[in-house]
Predict the structure.
Amino acid sequence: MKRDTQQRRAIRRVIEESGRPLGPKEVLDAAQTHCPGLGIATVYRTLKSLVEEGALTQVELPGEPPRYEATGKHHHHHFHCRACDRVFELEGCPEGLRRLTPPGFSLESHELVLYGRCPGCAA
Amino acid sequence: MKRDTQQRRAIRRVIEESGRPLGPKEVLDAAQTHCPGLGIATVYRTLKSLVEEGALTQVELPGEPPRYEATGKHHHHHFHCRACDRVFELEGCPEGLRRLTPPGFSLESHELVLYGRCPGCAA
DNA sequence: CGCTTGTTGAGATCGTATTATCATTTCAGT
DNA sequence: ACTGAAATGATAATACGATCTCAACAAGCG
């Protein structure tokens, strides 16, 4: 049976409040302000179980370990800041993807990542 | 000083002839047909030095170790076949990326990956 | 409140990709 | 061909993220 622990509550909370995909380390740091003493093992365990029960979605970015965001948002992509290494959500989706697919290939999905500077780092 | 060895020649050759990004294991398998006895250590060493001298470019895809392709092609993206796990090059680039960038963010570059079935696996 | 059992935290352990080690080989200049 | 130095290959060692172990803890029930 699944228990409602402080740790699990803190982890869910920081991800839902952040509005952007967080890595395990980011989750740990943020959740420790609500739940001192929280360990990294619990973060990994909880992220895994939240993904399995569908509450979280793994976000895979090129050359990076996975991050996690709340499930249920509509289709979107991400912006990866090269300066602070944070990842932000983007609205919308580019046009003409089908046009890029050569004959014979069957297109099932796509991933797009924009790179640059976030507002805080662009200054 | 840099020597022209059979191993290095075989590795450059398979990458240039493949026309798609190859991972270290793929390079090893393909190059061994030209250079029997080739070891994985030499593949890693050579890939690294070819990247450093600018002959190869690292291709990072979500959730995958890097692959390598010849430098000098014009801007392009990739198609990742979910069945055979091979990666292919795509021509062209989607429209409207700038439109996706929220105010305050400075866009420097982007990566796009299409997923699906390649011609050989779609059948 | 007290018991049962799932959960936690610290550290050990693992898995995979990559790099270092080192004796041997082989390239390249003479 | 001879020689010195760089390159190679088998294997050990590393890096890193993620998972496992297990004693201590705490959620939830009666």
